[in-house]
Amino acid sequence: MEIKKIICGIITNNNYILIKGNDCLIVDLSDFGSIDKVIEESKLNVLGVLLTHTHWDHLLGVEKFVNKYQVPVYLSSNRPNYIMDADFDYTIKKYGIKTRFDVNKIEMKYLDEGKQKIGEFDFFVIDTPGHTTCSIVYYFQIEKVMFTGDFLFKNTIGITNTQLSNKGQMKESLKKIKTYPSDINVYPGHGENTNLKHEKIHNRFLRR
Q: In whole angstroms, what is the distance from residue 201 CA to residue 56 CA?
C-alpha cells in the first residue's frame, strides 16, 4: 500500500491518500483542492473518506469532495460526534468558512470497532475515545501502519480539555494502544510521523 501524506488546511493538518493499484482511500480531508489535485493528477479511483474524528479541521474539504466523487464518508459509530452538535459551525464566525455538512445528503457509514474491508483495503478500527468521543484509529495490520488522528502524536497526545473530550477515556485508550506491536508506524493528524516503539519509550503519557 502506497501512502501519500498531504499537509494542508488552515491549521496545518496531515491528510493521507492510501493507494492500492488504482484505488484509494482518503484519511481525513482538510482541504478539497489539495487532495483533489493529487487524485486528478494520479487518475485514482476513490473508494471513500475515512475520518479519524469529527473535529472541524479534519473535514473542511469533505462536502465538496464527496459531492464530486460520490463516495461514502466512514467514521466511528460512537456517539455523540461534532457533526451532530448545534454549535459545530462556530468556524463561520471565527474563520468565515462553513464546516458543517448535511449528513442527510452525504452517505455516512458508521464503523464499529473491529475488522473492516473496503475494496482491497483490509484494516481494523480501534476505538480510542478521549480527545473526542468518536476518536478512532485505523490500523492496517499487514502494512504495520496506524492512522491516529489527534489521539496520538509524536511524543504527546491529543488535548482532553474540550467539549466531548474525557481524560479518563484517554487513559484507557492509551492502555489499549500500548498492547499493539512496537514496530507499527504511526501517522498522526498533525506533525511528524512516528512509531509505537518510540512512543512507548519517549512519550510520557504512554510511560505512565
A: 31
Q: How many CB atoms lie within 10 A of CB 50?
A: 27
Condensed to tens digits (0 to 9), the pLDDT of residues 116-129 reads 999 999 999 999 99
206 Cβ neighbours under 8 A, 6+ residues apart: 174, 177, 178, 199, 200
**Lookup: cell for 177:** 494502544
> Rounded to an integer, what distance in angstroms lies between the CA atom of residue 40 and that of residue 31?
15
| pTM, to two decimals | 0.96
| 106 CB neighbour count, 10 Å cutoff | 17
Cβ pair 24, 47 in contact under 8 A: yes
Please say whether the beta carbons of 10 and 109 come within 8 A. Answer: no
What's the rounded Cα separation, in Å, for the pair 52 and 174? 16
Q: Which SS3 state, helix, strand or coil, does residue 36 take?
A: helix
